[in-house]
Amino acid sequence: MPLLFSLFGPGPAQAVESVRVPPDAPAIDLTHWVEKYSNQGDRIQVSTAPGPDGIIRRIEVHARDAGAHPSWIVFALTNDTDEQMERLIVAPHFRLVGSGVIWPDLGSERITEITASQGIPPEKEDVDDADVFRITLDPGATVTYVAELKTPKLPQLYLWEPDAYKDKTTDLTLYKGIVIGIAGLLALFLTIVFVVKGAVIFPAAAALAWAVLAYISIDFGFWAKIFGTEVNADRIWRAGAETVLAATLVVFLFAYLNLRRWHVRASHVAVVWIAFLIALVGLAVYDPPIAAGIARISLATTAGVGFILVIYLATHGVERAVMLIPTWLLLVVWVAAAGFIVNGSIANDLASPALLGGLVLLVMLIGFTIMQSAFASGGVAMGAISDVERKALALTGASDIIFDWDVINDRIFVSPEIEEQLGVRRGELEGPASSWLSLLHPLERDRYRTCLDTVLEQRRGRIAQDFRFHASDGHYFWFRLRARPVVGPEGDVVRLVGTLTDVTDQKNAFERLLHDAVHDNLTGLPNREIFFDRLELALLQAEAEADKRPTVLCVDIDRFNRIIQAVGSSAGDSVLLTVARRLGRLLQPRDTLARIAGDTFAVILASAATTEQIVHLADRIRRTVSTPITFANREIPLSVSVGVALYDPQWHPRREDMLKDAEIAMRHAKRDGGGRIEVFRPSMRAQGANRQALESELRRALELDEIKLFFQPIVRLDDRTVAGFEALLRWEHPRLGRVEASEFLPLAEETGLIVDLGLFAIQRTARELAAWQKALDVNPPIFACVDISSRQILRHDLLADVKNVLTRVSVLPGSLKLELNEGLVMENPEYAAQILGRLKELGSGLALTRFGSGYSSLAYLQRFPFDMIRIDRAFVRQDALTNRAAMLRSLVTLAHDFGMEAIADGAENESDVIEFSQIGCEYALGFAFGLPLSAAEARKLVGAAAEPAI
User: Fold this and answer.
1) pLDDT at position 534, please?
2) Closest CA to 147 of 9, 23, 31
3) How many whole angstroms from its chain centre is CA 789?
4) Which of 134, 569, 709, 822 has the most crowded CB, counting CB atoms within 10 A?
5) Phi and psi of 728, rounded to 5°?
6) Is 540:548 a contact under the CB 8 Å cutoff?
7) Backbone dihedral region of 440: left (phi > 0), alpha (psi from -120 to 50 degrees) or beta?
8) Which residues, in sequence order, are CB contacts of 235 under 8 Å at separation 6+?
9) Are strands 18-20 and 816-821 parallel, antiparallel or unpaired?
10) Which residues have C-beta within 8 Å of that of residue 314, sequence separation ≥ 6?
């Protein structure tokens, strides 16, 4: 490279300030003394520092490569001594200090060549981690140096005394070797532990240790010496190492804290984070500064977020997090110190080596932490355990209590848990086997002695017995003893070893199951099974002792279904509980009270001997139980029917016969209006047989066409014309004559025949209605009402039946009105609302009967799609209410407000009809308009054809 000296010539650069070089200074920092130039092209002209003669010269320096545009630095050195000096100009390739966080300076070759203004040219020495030039300063000379830079950045430039630089390099090399050796041993140790242990925490820690080893090897220059990489390639390796270091730290934190068990999102975040950092390794090949900057940000973020997680989990009792607090706190301090160093706030030459040494120390602390955590549970946690240890571990996991009886010394050892549970002092159960007798239930002491003696005598076998232990608070706890003998060399039993298991909950559950099997769940009274068992014992005793004759009472609540319909099932349960308590207070301990059916109670009476006493007690039961009860601020009247069956050996050879006779007597009491007492008479069996025969005949009545349909006219009060009919069932019995619906419908309801009768009524009414509408074209059209029973609405086939009828028979939409009892609707309003809505969609009309008799229908009325309401005849009767007119007017007004029409049921005379018309009622029915008509008479009334349209 040519060097031109001239006294004149153009050039913008001014003379540089010379730096005096003391002979005893080991190193001088020239970083702040250099002048930097850029955009000078491939040559630069500068003015030299004034020499001893005070003359400023100008020099021109050409770049090594023509056409290049490098950066330049200029500095001057003065040797004012009378001896020649040799010094080293040192520009480190990489310095962690001041490298920066975002787009950090990862280092490379700094200086291409240095040109001196005079004297011996600088000589470049072969050093791996820095650009080193040896210069010579003549005595009294001032030399200006122009350096062509490889990169625009020159973080540091030092002038070293050669021996001092050699000593410094030697000392630092020794330190680097120690640090790398410790890091390598640590990584190798964690890898070996991983191979032995196999837990996920060890490969994570080993990966972190290997990443730290790789990073410090690159930073200390050992990487290039081992693999022979070029200087500029270190930037890629350094960026990749920093990225891997950040990724392995995330992996370690995730594995150590086992974050995946806390929330699945923690796994997702960790996987995405690690995948992102791994992708940065590929980015490091193309743009190392960006990859390194992101890795440094990730490292700081991991330290901060990890510290928050560690503190949070530690406060929630996670032991691993508690053990990691000191180490992670030091990591946060290390990250903070690294931040100050890379930003240049700490610029000491020892800062970078100290920081890397601290990183190795952190990895060492992490290794100690995971070792302490992994092996805290002792040898069992290491993996391989003996068979004895495995059994002991299983026993501990099963939470069983150890039982060990040293037979030779007669001393029992048990785990302290049983003593804590029984509330006795520690060691009270550890003593002779006979000391346990005081704590065992008296009925089980002999069995306890027998078990121990049998094992000792037979020298074999096992014990599997349940014993009750008396606790200090008076309760008994069940424990199951499972033990087997240990036979000594001489064939005698030397120990009895086993476990005690608390089975109190199992015993209690079994006893509850036994109790529930023979007792009623609601009232807790004996059920039919235990009732029959006790009745059989009473009958056997009566056969042996003539003066001890039992009596059976059957007590049934009158109209209990109506109570449920009116006030709901919860009130019905309250009624049953109240009746059970009242009956229990009237009976003696020798008597037996049982609930044998829904609202039927049975009593085995042993405390009353004479007939007068029995009837007197039955009357007390009737009067006591009939006292009204209050539920939800509403008084519910009660009455019961009582059937009495006196013991007769001729009529009651079996237990079932006596209860059956009491039930027959109870039904006779109900048949006469209820609230009565009937004593069984043999003639009642014949009447019961007649009832069974009537049931059998009713089953055949539909097939024999004995069930007939009659129609009660419904009159429009405005013009006194027939607006519709109410369908009524009658039974034309061949022997009994016409049977009213009130006599056979309850029997049909009990036997389930009401479903077939209801379907028959709907089909026949629809056929008659079609004939009426064909003959009578009026607006609004004539309609017909059919009553729906509770069994019908609870059947899922009701919708299909109605749809089938409306499809086969052509009637106008809404004219076939299905009537539902208000109590039936309110029994399950949600279900009823769904069924009624579906019926409305099919084209059926809906009418609500017995309106006003329920307690909550007003709140639900607007939810049901009824067309009309039928005011119950209880509000229509003259003697029902003193303010009947006001009540009727309110009910009619309420119906109109909801868009419904009102029918008054029970119009007996002309005054009733006039009053109903005046209060705004649209329709009325009753005997004022005549008796129910047959199908033929109804067709004749409306002018229809003789035969119904099919």
Assistant:
1) 85
2) 31
3) 43
4) 822
5) -130, 135
6) no
7) beta
8) 106, 107, 108, 288, 289
9) unpaired
10) 321, 322, 325
Mean pLDDT of the residues in the chain: 80
Q: What is the pLDDT of residue 384?
A: 47
The encoded tokens of residue 670 equal 């109900």
pLDDT at residue 134 above 90?
yes
Strands 72-78 and 123-125: unpaired
User: For residue 346, what are the CA distances in angstroms to 108, 170, 246, 355, 682?
Assistant: 22, 24, 23, 11, 116
- Compute the distance between CA of residue 801 and CA of residue 796 in angstroms, rounded to an integer: 9
Q: Residue 460 above 50 pLDDT?
A: yes
Q: Using one digit for the tens of pLDDT, what is the confidence trace for 160-202?
A: 999 888 888 887 877 777 888 887 888 788 778 777 665 667 7
Nearest one of 828, 911, 900 to 871, comparing CA atoms: 900
CA distances from 164 to 75, 87, 120, 800 (A): 22, 10, 22, 108
SS3 (DSSP) at 422: helix
DSSP state of 948: -
Mean pLDDT within 455-469? 83
pLDDT (tens digit, 9 = 90+) per residue, 79-100? 888 888 999 999 888 777 777 7
Q: Which residue has the tokens 């121990």?
A: 452
Q: What residues form DSSP beta bridges with 135?
A: 87
List, as one string, the DSSP characters of 174-234.
Answer: HHHHHHHHHHHHHHHHHHHHHHHH--THHHHHHHHHHHHHHHHHHHHTHHHHHH---TTTH
What is d(CA 925, CA 940) in angstroms, rounded to the nearest whole number? 19
**Token pair belonging to 52:** 């001893």
What tokens appear for 826 in the block?
């309110």
**Alpha-helix runs per DSSP H in 343-386:** 351-374
Contacts of 924-933 with CB under 8 Å at 24 or more apart are 924/714, 924/715, 924/717, 925/712, 925/713, 925/714, 925/715, 925/726, 929/713, 929/715, 930/713, 932/710, 932/711, 932/712, 932/728, 933/710, 933/711, 933/712, 933/713, 933/725
Which of 278-287, 340-349, 475-484 is the most confident on average?
475-484
Residue 612 zone, left/alpha/beta (φ > 0; ψ -120 to 50; rest): alpha
**Does residue 843 come out as left (phi exceeding 0), alpha (psi in the -120 to 50 range) or beta?**
left
CB atoms within 10 A of CB 308: 9
d(CA 160, CA 189): 41
CB 295 within 8 A of CB 280: yes
Residue 279: both structure tokens together: 């992708």
What is the C-alpha radius of gyration for the chain, rounded to an integer number of angstroms? 54
* Count helices and strands in the chain by DSSP H and E runs: 28, 35
Share of the chain above pLDDT 70, in %: 85
User: What does the block give as tokens for 917?
Assistant: 């018309």
Report the Cα–Cα distance between both ends of the chain, in Å, rounded: 124
Q: Which residues pair with 158 in a beta bridge?
A: 29, 90
Ramachandran quadrant class, 720 (left: phi over 0; alpha: psi -120 to 50; beta: rest): left
Name the residue with higher pLDDT: 515 or 424.
424
Residues with Cβ within 8 Å of 929's Cβ and at least 6 positions away in sequence, in order, are 713, 715, 907
> Predicted confidence band at 790 (pLDDT cuts at 50, 70, 90)?
low
pLDDT above 50: residue 151: yes
pLDDT at position 350 is 76
pLDDT digits (tens, 9 = 90+) for 827-886: 667 777 788 888 888 889 998 887 665 444 555 567 788 888 888 776 666 444 456 777
Q: Is the peptide bond before 780 cis (omega within 30 degrees of 0)?
A: yes
pTM higher than 0.90 for the full model? no
* 535 touches 550 (CB < 8 A): yes
CA 553 to mean position of chain CA atoms? 52
CA 631 – CA 867 distance, rounded (Å): 32
